Amino acid sequence: MRAWPGEHRLAVGLSGGVDSSLTAALLVAAGWQVEGLTLWLMSGKGACCAEGLVDAAGICEQLGVPHHVVDSRERFQQQIVDFLVEGYGGGVTPLPCSRCNREVKFTPMLEWAEAELGIGRLATGHYARVRLADPVVPAGRHQLLRGLDGHKDQSYFLYDLPQEVLSRLVFPLGELTKADTRLEAEALGLRTARKPESQDLCLADHHGSMKAFLDAYLPPRQGQIVLVDGTVVGDHDGIEHFTIGQRKGLGVAWSEPLHVVRLDGAMNRVVVAPRSEAARSSCVVGAINWISIPPPEAPIELEVQVRYRSAPVAAQLIPLEHTASDWAAGRPHRARLVFLEEQFSITPGQAAVFYAGEVVLGGGLIQGHPSDPVHQ
Length: 376
What we know:
The protein has helices at residues 18-29, 50-63, 73-89, 96-117, 163-166, 178-187, 202-207, 210-217, 324-328; strands at 9-13, 33-40, 67-71, 122-123, 128-131, 143-146, 169-170, 223-227, 232-236, 258-264, 269-274, 280-289, 300-305, 313-320, 334-343, 351-356, 359-368. It folds into three domains: 9-206, 3-Layer(aba) Sandwich (Rossmann fold); 219-277, Adenine nucleotide alpha hydrolases-like domains (SH3 type barrels, Roll), CATH 2.30.30; 280-375, Beta Barrel (Elongation Factor Tu (Ef-tu), domain 3). The chain has nine helices and 17 strands. The N and C termini lie far apart (52 Å). It is α/β, with parallel strands linked by helices. The radius of gyration is 22 Å and the shape is globular.
């Protein structure tokens, strides 16, 4: 950290957890001028709420650095809560974390820090790394890299950050394992050293479960569970309670186990099939952000991760023409992914993130399978 180029003054995004706490402590120890910044996202319990605000303030007091709280509840409601409700209601399983990083956290925190504090850099406790562009290379790109801890790597959720944001980020934990973080926090006597880590989405923590969150916003909607050919095999009380690949909890008696293969928002139906019919050889990905490389103009071979906890798999990416809606949304890059081996649980709304070894090339949102009605 002492050798990092540029001014050693920054804001640290503090959630009140051990990761962001150690981030601030390491930077202070390395001689950086640190100011803590916490976003107030929701009222009530949960890591992003009352308890997190108290612990973040306590860490700043312990480290002797200023602490600022920014009321981001309205932005969080519009960008994340409303986005999730609309997606789940339409038969999509949205990925809120990458969207939150782009629309609620990184860009808004940098803008606030620059406007209010005159600070142009931000550090967070994410397990990822940034390789800054070589200053002597014209139009060089900064690269996002995986964190060294393969079990904790969070680069999947950061694929959608723009270059101008990536160039201003510092990730001190990118070279550490989670076990190292706990040991370092203990050694420094941080008050959050033994604080348990949340295992759920912050909204699930806040409401008690993801089902409770959805039930608070979406009324029950009775519909049918059907086979691919339309045969009715059961009923449901809301497609938002199902996800692609799901087998348990369908409430369907059949001669062989059935898995959810599609959520039909227009017809309010859950489409199921045997596992042998649930695999996909390809999918369409839209709203692609090419973070570490320019958009390719021809097919390329890469690795792709279709879920946060899934292993990367080999695939060919074939660029596609953008649609009018892609262009209007300012997210024109689309592609088809063709997997070397068929994949299970390819879920519209989730991210497909592209890698070349440790480098995050880019990523986008899965829009569906080419054979789905919307893509025919």
